[in-house]
Amino acid sequence: MAEIDVFDGHNDAVQFMAEYTSAGRDFLVRSESGHLDLPRAREGGMAGGLFALHAGPERQPENDLIITENGYEVLYAETVDPAYARRQIEAQRLALEILIRRSGGRMRLAVDVDGIAAARAEDAFAVVLHLEGAEAVDGEFDYLHRLHAAGLRSLGLVWSRPNIFGSGVPFAYPRSPDTGPGLTEIGKELVRTCNRLGIMIDLAHLNEKGFWDVAALSHAPVVVTHACAHAICPSTRNLTDRQLDAIRDSDGVIGFNLSVNDIRADGHLKDDTPLEAVARHIDYLVNRVGEDRVALGSDFDGAVIPRAIKDASGLPHLFEAMRHSGFDSESLSKFAFDNWLRVFGLTWKNAPAA
Q: Which ranges form a coiled coil (predicted)?
């Protein structure tokens, strides 16, 4: 059994669950494909996580990856029809609901910090609903209120494409995250509405102007669930030092992304990325924002991760590398679990009940 309890800030496992797709795998049974299922999560010490609901386009783009002399860029993704997005999000939400029911108490939907703590105490796996990209949200926010009533507690305004609320960053390296306009007026109203409801706002995938709009407008801590440092790996998905300072100054959190092409200085998609380099990158973030503001945002089932970790069961290898890099037991506990609960408490505490 793993020694360190883990709450993970981001995974894409719902996309691959048998309850959602006929080609999916049984989350309750250990698999060798993908990164995450309940047995491997438990082997790695995971006590819960944010589970992303994410809508894709009706037509998958072809030949959208362009290799450049110094790196890469991915052609900007198309917008997604809101009605089509809602159908996907509802199907994924119901898939998780069915899975939790089928788990026989081994998994629980958590809607507050007490719920996460209770699940941990009773050895149940806590699931927190996260919406990655708000395409499914209508302009009157009716669907947002329905999702909140169903347990949604975290929302990313955009994925890496435009929507009615703002503009996501196109995937590219090397490039600045300053890639387009800021939030729309309705995007700003979405921020205010999330603040009122106590829904955590996730700035992952958001471009830099949008980031600063949220930082200026929101009353909650600045949170990015899965990203790394642009100063080390200058991809559009990573955060500049100024953005990291905004997280520090608002007492927010950055979830460290295990995606190798956002960790490596060369931006390469190579899973032989050594854990020493991973630990150094985490150390940079901690030195910039403080050990209370860096957590894990693995992107399991949504990224290429270091081979030495392999999947959720390999998280103890990451923590061992961090120990060798100078992290003590207290700082490891903060990174692995405590920092997420701290920022949830700051974000959710004054929200009305669902």
A: none
Among 241, 244, 238, 240, which residue's Cα sits nearest to residue 205?
Answer: 238
Contact indicator for 57, 80 with CB cutoff of 8 Å: yes
In tens, the pLDDT along 265-297 reads: 999 999 999 999 999 999 999 999 999 999 999
Burial of 63 (0-12, 13-18, 19+ CB in 10 A): exposed
Listed in sequence order, the residues at least 6 apart from 184 whose beta carbon sits closer than 8 Å to its beta carbon are 164, 165, 166
Question: What is the three-class DSSP state of 271?
Answer: coil
Q: Tokens for 42, please give them.
A: 């438990």
Angle at 94 between CA 104 and CA 352, to 5 degrees: 90
Cis peptide before 174 (omega within 30 of 0): yes
> Has residue 73 got a pLDDT over 70?
yes
Coil, helix or strand at residue 121: helix
The DSSP code for 165 is S
CB atoms within 10 A of CB 73: 17
Beta bridge partners of 92: none
In angstroms, how far is CA 338 from the centroid of its own chain? 16
| % of the chain with per-residue pLDDT over 90 | 94
Q: Enumerate the domain spans of the chain.
A: 6-348
State pLDDT tens for residues 133-179.
999 999 999 999 999 999 999 999 999 999 999 999 999 999 999 99
Question: Using CA atoms, how far apart are residues 332 and 326, in angstroms rounded to an integer?
Answer: 10
Distance CA 168, CA 262 (A): 16
- Nearest CA among 271, 282, 226 for reference residue 11: 226
- Euclidean distance between CA atoms 61 and 318, whole angstroms: 34
Calculate the alpha carbon distances from 244 to 40, 183, 255, 308 in Å: 32, 19, 11, 27
Residues near 307 by beta carbon (within 8 Å), at least 6 away in sequence: 271, 272, 273
Q: Are 153 and 161 in contact (CB under 8 A)?
A: no
Q: Which CATH architecture has domain 6-348?
A: Alpha-Beta Barrel (3.20)
